[in-house]
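Problem: given the chain below (311 residues), write out its structure.
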Amino acid sequence: MKALSPSASHSGPVSSLNGFTLIELLVIVAMMAVLTAVVLPALAGTKPNVPAFQCLNNQRQIILGWQMYASDNNGLVPPNDYPYTTAYYTYPNKFQLKNWAVGTMVQPLDAGALGFRELTDPNSLLSAYITNASVYFCPADNYIDSRSHAYHVRSYSMNSAVGTIWSYYYLSGLPLGAPVKGGWLPGNVYNPNQTTWLTYGKMSSFTRPGPANTWIFIDENAYSINDGSFVMPAAASPGATYLLDFASGRHGKADVLAFADGHVIVHQWQDSRTYTPAGIVQPGGGSSTSTLQSPDNLDCFYLAPLTSARR
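Solution.
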């Protein structure tokens, strides 16, 4: 008996199980054309904001270092009372100037290349956790100081309601390790003895508005940055909102904020006055008056309740 060949065992037409018909291919091509027409205009002109991403990463490292410092010091947060016009490099007793980050951008030696060394100095108390000084520098900060002819080494500052006393223990006799006084929190005038608003010297003190709702670090404008403290009054009411320090607005009119619980955000400002310094005498010198009114500034209304709370 003659054996059947493989081809002889199939009498009907051979069907394709893996391919596409011409009609199916035409449908797929048409769908791709429609998607391209819809998506490309939406993406036109957009590109990743790499500096903002790097700035987010910087502040994640800084807030983590801040938390680790507190964990290693029985919940006590690092000092935030550096004397804003005092040059660290030439100060005779540097031990008296311990701070979360020493130096002031109002002094060319601190603001320039020497400042990188200061940020890794043991008296910069976060240096034990942040060994790379470039973490303190926002990659979008392209300001060059006309005095030092260099970029500022530090772009970030800490909420003036947060921190402990160190320098002012030696300079003014305030209790060592006590919470900062928060003298600018009332808004319209400096009051070194203010008791209306909470200040935070320990992790356990973040009761109101709470760790997730209290900002710790912010991008500060190159024209107002000096010491490591950022003044944002906690008092804000219709017709009475104030600015002393200014946000940078470096990331498309937005800035990075780090909070006590460790989360970090990019926040879009609503009022150009927030990141447009007015009345600046010199870079790093602050405003020309004690406080500047910025009436009904929406950004003040946003930041004020995240800065402190009434006692």
